Amino acid sequence: MSKYRLIACVSFCAVALLAAGCSDDDNSKKKTPLDAGSDVSATDTSADDAGSEDDATTQADADTNADTGADTGADTGSDQDAQADASGSDCGKNGLSSPTVEAHLDDNGVLTATAVAAADYGQTDVLVITWNFPAGASIDTADYDPYVLQPTADPSSAKVAVEAYAGCTGEPSTTSCMSYYIATAGDLTVTALGQAGGDQLTGSLDSATMLQMMSNGGGAENWCIEALSFDATITSDGPGEGLCRTDADCSSQCMTPPEFMEFNMCPPQSCEMQAPNACFNDADCGGSGAVCRQAPMEACLCNPEVRTCQPPCALDADCREGEACDTTTGHCGPIGCTTDADCPAHYACGGNNTCERRTCSTDADCTDGKCVKGACFDDFGACLTF
């Protein structure tokens, strides 16, 4: 009888132990949560944060799956998940890594700050802040301290606009980049808003949310930038101090580069009233082998159009800019042409099949040159000083 009691007891204990091993009432067999803290909600029963309440941990999540809670995590550190949190307020793309910031002011008064950061596979991410001063934008820094960005489908119509490009293989544009974004929220604080080349542009862009407007290959719908500081010296297409395009750039008079060179070589107060060996034609030179040519600049004649007897030219270098030497006659004259390609820089083939200096209204009309007083030159003109 004792024998049967012992067998029954052993059998009962084995069943009890098996039942206890299958039960999870005491959580002893649960997978240990990877979230370093405790969740607010008792319903958050999964190791991968599947609850419906905020996480209340004080450290970063270290799980390998996305948080799938209805609300965003309340961790004080950044998520280290392999995927982004599945919350509607999260951005699939964040930040701009160690960007290089440059500032530029163009001829139309548009000031641009461009932040460029290297991305994967040799592509770049670019953020562009533009102040459209010609559109009536304020130039008072107080209007941007902070300036709350407003959603707009047309950044060119805004007083200030923030755009971004991702995956660029060239200059930022919707054709050379994988994605294009515009800012829908954020604070832009400006501490120095320069208005000329050499001025400084400083400030920061905080809590900016960029909405994707175009994508050539899918990718993140939103791009968030928490903080981007900029401090850049403004470059400019405009003339610097003492330089000019028109008289309006000077307190006196704007001189073209050739005029300024002649002025420096021969100031008006030192010019020669009388020209030695003045002539009207070669015959006036007495058959000495000299020819009647326009006086050289270094002669410093008060009337630079006066002609004097001089040795005949042998090279184009013996002539003034835009002229060529006719070695048969020893005279300098216009350069003959049939197309613009036959002419030197800043000259075009005119109606008389001779090269004439290009006329212009902006620098864009001059190839690698500047438009000064309606004509193209290598560089800006200079303001007359006394």
UniProtKB/TrEMBL annotation:
Swiss-Prot/TrEMBL keywords: Signal
Listed Low complexity bias regions: 35-45, 57-90
UniProt xrefs under PROSITE patterns: PROKAR_LIPOPROTEIN
Signal peptide as annotated in the record: 1-19
Biased composition (Acidic residues): 46-56
Annotated region (Disordered), positions in chain: 23-99
Name this protein carries in UniProt: Uncharacterized protein
Source organism (scientific name): Persicimonas caeni
